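Structure request: Dihydrokaempferol 4-reductase, Brevirhabdus pacifica.
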Amino acid sequence: MDQETVLLTGITGYIGKHVALRLLKAGLRVRGSVRDLDRAEEVRRALRPHLRDPDTLPDMLEFVTLDLNRDEGWDEAMAGVDILMHTASPFPLAEPRDAASLIRPAVEGTERALRAAARAGVERVILTSSVAAILSRDLPADREVFTEDDWTDPAHPTAGAYVRSKTEAERAAWRIAGTEAPALRLTAINPGLVLGPPLDRNFGSSVSIVQRLMRGTDPMLPRLGFAAVDVRDVAEMHLRAISRPETEGRRYIAAERFMWFSDLAAAVQEALPDRRIKERVAPDMLVRAMALFDRSLRPVLPTLGRRTDVSNARAVADMDMEFMDARESAAETALFLSATGVG
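Returned structure:
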């Protein structure tokens, strides 16, 4: 695995930076894609403190400019690459007015990345998908736990624009690898809600949920829940997939446990006992009534009270994963936000 080069899309993201760190620590060269080269130094600053020998960074990390919505640069970016890790995908907190504005770049960006890899002869591909591509469906009456064999139904009431974007993007990847470019050896990593300390203050929507709790933005908590996972485990799964042929052609749920919003709040409160974190849960009827006047609440209504337990058995068996306690991940996230003055 030494000295192989990985093209890592979305390197400026919360997950992307952690993946880059894992790859560099393992001795791989990283070519990170950014939409604007001005953000390259941001990534370097985030990574340097965590490297054993920061002086090697100029030799091990380079940057290319790529856009999910444009064809330019993809072929050049793939030159000399051994592995593609496609983590870039939009993740908004609020439902967009135009679903296509979210779905199109996710799907077309995935198609551009995989087709460019195929043209360049890059066969190994690791795709960052999401449990969103798994959970929006009804399970059979005899089963209560979702697995990698489950696929989201785009017509399901819980399938909003983000869910459909992740589902359609992953479907497109498997379609390309299955028929259009069968030489591609694809693995999909499907994380739940990603928690854990960011590498810098430029973090994504999932960390913003903890920030929202710390700031007391909401008077009460909706009865919402999610499969949760530590960002460092997600990054580790990306790395382990490279050297494990048994992961090729398979999807892997990255999640440690199911957490209600109130569980997340309790973990934050325990980490920050001097803060007053609101833990009271709002009745579903109240949330539904508020949604009549607050459009931003409407997308969550179909998921109120819905429990979505998932199995991580495949990741444990094929990757030897031992997942971190997601409650501790939430606590570490809160401590990071508090220490850096952004929580």
